[in-house]
Amino acid sequence: MAKDKIIFECSNCGYTSPKWLGKCTKCGAWNTFEEVEQATTKPIEQKNKIISTNDTPTLLKDISDLKLERILLNNSELDRVLGGGIMPSSVILFAGDPGIGKSTLLLQTLCELTNKGYKVLYVSGEENKYQIKMRAVRLGVSQDKLLVMSETSMDTIMKTIENVKPDFVAIDSIQTMYRSDHSSAPGSVPQIRECTSELTRYAKSNQCSILLVGHVTKDGVLAGPRVLEHMVDVVLYFEGDKQHEYRLLRAAKNRFGSVNELGVFQMTEMGIETVENPSVALLNNRAANISGSVVFCALQGSRPILVDLQALTTKSYLSMPKRTVNGVDQSRISLLLAVIEKRANKKMFDQDVYVNVAGGLSISDPAADLAIIIAIISSYTNKTLDSSFTAMGEVGLCGEIRPITQAQRRIYECERLGYNKIMLPKVLKNKVKCSENTQLMFADTIAQALAIIF
Asked: How many Å apart are CA 279 and CA 298, to the nearest integer?
């Protein structure tokens, strides 16, 4: 028998090299080459004939219309992020940090599917059956119809799937699965790629939806080859601070819906529960009559969410003042501080500046610029704002306040929660409307806005 050959493979793109390289010559990533064994013998013949479609080229106009109905869950937040439910024959990847609640959310979702009459198979490569049973008892979910299997061999798993013929299959996690015809270790690039490819082929050929759980690296990206994200239909990132009770679900890829939707969940003793009104939840513990706090209406997909933007400025005794930011892009804060110093004549070069989005939410909406500037100036001058005040507007380098998207929807959300003093860009003055109890304030520049407020 021939001896296996040692090669090095990039964990980012899958490029192989006969020797170790510090930098991948294909994708440019550093320190991504891992040692793998390449068998010199002919690999075991793959059993793809069972799931091969033997499809032939067909004119697009000759293909009959097939209307697939989405499978709705009793989880409004998950349905929202998926685009209205699970599409049949789709492959969905759940990614997130260890301990964030991926397996808990998955188990609750699978039990909900069994309650709707679907046959579901849960394959775990990280826990045995007794541990899954303990978690199900703790969560109080239905245990009557869910099929559970503890296995890591794809050969055994595929045989079981072909015999059981389930409507849904969950793999927890894809990094623990391996195929016997590959000598590399579970979690390596070839193993993840081949296992996912086999599951995807089966899903597309047998009207079976596959739910995969994936780990992320310390940098927050999905572990394994980048091709993994291209192979699946939906990529969901489950994120949040373990010290906070709230969890956020975002779609990084969705072939059947928008990728801008956000799902908000709450971790409780009874599992993960949906947060139907995240604006109220995020503003419940907001401090009153304190400087440096401004409410902002962020747009997450089609959903407006009110968040508390907090800023704190203190005299710095360091040669390089601190700039600590949480929930907002730090380079954006540096830009806004330069605008404040140049256009609002507020000296920030000797100030330590701290900016935080309360509740653990991350914001990339440029409409938050005006609210951040007002919060910083409020803390700098130690002047409090009205408790019903909110501000929205993008700020340019010249200090001008630019228009924002979907301003009317944001105004309605602010009014619904009692925030009836709203600062907006002046260009929207004749384009938006409000109730008679709401006061709209408009400004062209941040100097005008600060003059009106303070």
From this structure: 10
Instruction: Please give the helix or strand (H or E) that residue 131 lies within, else none.
Output: helix 129-139
> What mean pLDDT is reported for the chain?
88
Q: DSSP letters of 162-226?
A: HHH--SEEEEE-GGG-B-TT--SPTTSHHHHHHHHHHHHHHHHHTT-EEEEEEEB-TTSSBSS-T
Which whole-number Å values give the CA distances from 160 to 40, 156, 169, in the listed order? 30, 6, 11
Tokens 């969890």 belong to 247
Q: State pLDDT tens for residues 330-372.
A: 999 999 999 999 999 999 999 999 999 988 788 989 999 999 9
Contact yes or no for 114/120 (Cβ under 8 A): yes
Closest Cα to residue 344, out of 376, 313, 321?
A: 376
Look at residue 50 and tell me whether its pLDDT is greater than 60: no
Query: Cα dist. 432→342, 424, 440 in Å?
Result: 31, 10, 9
| CA atoms of 421 and 387, how far apart (whole Å) | 9
Distance CA 20, CA 36 (A): 11
Name the DSSP letter for residue 60.
Answer: G
Residue 194, both tokens: 């081949």
Q: How many angstroms separate the Cα of 245 from the Cα of each of 116, 231, 273, 427?
A: 29, 32, 10, 39
Rounded CA-CA distance 70/86 in Å is 5
Helix, strand, coil tally for the chain in percent (to 5): 30, 30, 45
The token duo for 415 is 């009014």
Contact between 196 and 231 under an 8 Å Cβ cutoff? The reply is yes
| Distance in angstroms (rounded) separating the CA atoms of residues 363 and 357 | 8
